[in-house]
Amino acid sequence: MRCEGISQNHEDSLFTLWKGTGETGREVWGTVPCGDDEALPEAAASGVGEAAVAVIRFEECERTKAMPLKKSDGNMYPWVTHTHSHLTGKCPHGCVYCYVQAMAKKFANMKARYGGALGFDEKELKVVYGSGRTIFVEHMNDLFAEEIPRTFISAVLLHCWQYPGNQYAFQTKNPARYLAYLHAQGFGMPALPLGSFLGTTIESNRDLGALVMGYAPPPLMRKRAMVALRGVYGHHLRFVTIEPILDFDVNVMVDWLWEINPDFVNIGADSKGHGLPEPSADKVWALIASLGQLGIEIREKHNLARLLGE
Ligand code: SF4
What we know:
Layout: E1 5-9, E2 14-19, E3 27-33, H1 39-48, H2 50-64, E4 70-71, E5 82-84, E6 87-88, H3 99-106, H4 108-114, E7 119-120, E8 134-137, H5 150-161, E9 167-172, H6 176-182, E10 197-201, H7 210-213, H8 219-229, E11 237-242, H9 250-260, E12 264-268, H10 281-294, E13 298-302, H11 305-308
Parallel strand pairs: 5-8, 8-9, 9-10, 10-11, 11-12, 12-13
Antiparallel strand pairs: 1-2, 2-3, 4-5, 6-7
Helix pairs in contact: 1-2, 3-4, 6-8, 8-9, 9-10
Bound molecules: iron/sulfur cluster.
């Protein structure tokens, strides 16, 4: 039986599809999240009909300003299904190897969005997150940098809380600020969503200075914050990303990771020829072997072949 009518619940951005609209009253045929590009073909295949799908996608969604969520592209972690970003302008950390700023130099549209002063795109709050996804939030900036206003962070976290059926991934070079949002309830701020992935980047144990690492807190501060998160908040997952891997001291790095005891680690090398101080293959192999001995999962290895001489 075909769908015979469509109505919208503005509370949860769901369209209800009806059948039997005659004297016998209406029966629910099914529901479709507004702006959900993945659900729409499924609905079409079930008999909603292309015309109704077109109405949902182009007219109703536009009218209510609900917007679809974008799927993660191949450069993101494979365990992330979608990415989303509300922040605009330059990330205050200014890392020399930042891929966002590299793109902003190359493409006019990226420069317009990410090349200027820090800002917040309110219309991104209309994006429908749906459920059953792992969404990397603010992959084009650093949401927890000290310079990001609390109002921006609260708005992003409240957006996530509207869709509790997802897992959210955050990554920052200022993980000390996670602590404030674990204790946030009661202080008028939203907390980090339960079950979130809380990550930090530690490219090296060495502080290589602003010319390489920008203005982010030094690696030792990041390590201390991740240790502080350990164990106390078991409902979150913690990860460390060593990318782009920079020259490091094997014993110190292994000690740090042992102290942090993350749920998993990602390791990756610079792929854009930034001329960074990089470790030898022996050091990288030693790190990989030590993590194996400690039972710490290496979930992702990005572009390591060049460094490992494979
Ligand atoms: S913290 Fe991330 S987003 Fe910010 S400048 Fe560094 S690489 Fe770019």
